Amino acid sequence: MNWLDLPTLIAVNIFASLVFMGIFFSLWRYHPEEKSFLWPFCSGLSLFFGITMLLSRSWIPELISILFGNVSLLYGHIFILTAVRQLHRQNLRSWYWLMPLPLIVALLFFTLVIPDMDYRVVSFCLSSLVISLLLLHELRLAYHQGHRLGCTTLMIATTADLLVQAGRVILILIYPMEQHLFPFHPSILLSLINGLAYMVLCPLGFMMLYNERLQSQLKQEATHDHLTGLLNLRAFLTEAEQLLQSPQHQAVTLALIDLDWFKKINDSYGHQAGDHVLEYFAQLLSMTLHGSGASIGRVGGEEFAVLWHDHSAAAREGLERLRQHLQHQPPYWEGQAIALTFSCGMVSLKPERSTFDSLYREADRQLYLAKAKGRNCLSLA
After folding, report:
1. Could you give the CA distance from residue 5 to residue 182 in angstroms, rounded to a whole number?
2. What average pLDDT does range 125-149 have in this prediction?
């Protein structure tokens, strides 16, 4: 049988939609916590239902076949668009579900008022074009987040679909379906070939995208503290060593920061309050030093470290601002302000302390000097 004949292409498309659906149903079943697997499964189901409805025109009312078939095919694309947003933990857009409304109006008009198959197909193609453009926009954003391979695969599938839908519109305008001379219109053949490619590339691209996001998440968890989101001790030390080995390390400043009397906060307010204080301080520290080029890490329970790529004067000013800010805007827990101060030891790179170990030891010594002075102060060497 010639693979380009219509029955074969339809059968292959139905089989592809079932495989599409089966893959993501299995993934969703074994990973129910990953909500993004639900939407590709819905996409495969919607595509299968749409194809089936369009093939059932001989057995069911034509209006139902046309309406449910086209709208289901369109939702197959919308579900992929939703899956990409869900995969990147973005809020789902409620207006996505209303996007088929113009198509429904057009299908009803060109079926009941002015029956015209050409305009129905053009209406579907234009609706699909809009969704493809939205999907390309979402993929472009994900691409810039570092998910290159999966995004590229999905972009190829989406771009091909966009070009096919545009080509179908042009074909119908030049060569109306009512006037075709062949057993079936070329736009139908084009649509089926495109559908098959789409149902092969979409699962492949989505799985690549999921794998890239998973790898990025594992890397984030391996290098960042789970509570504060700052670099953990190992990642901070690695970044510091790399900086000192680079030729631009002549002006390096290290600060070790310890929250004063943190154990009393845990004892008085509870460990949840203590975690809240750590999160609050980490966020405030990041905001205060934003744009300074500093590397920030949580290197102990209530101990933080900051490494600047410049001289100590600007670094000291930043921490002084933070200390004063805490006096006016302390963290709150259950409506009660928690007094929070910190002690800090700060040291700059000098010939006698040119390695990170020597730099860290001196900063630690300065931190204890700050505590000996009564805490809530900075000690600079």
Report:
1. 12
2. 89
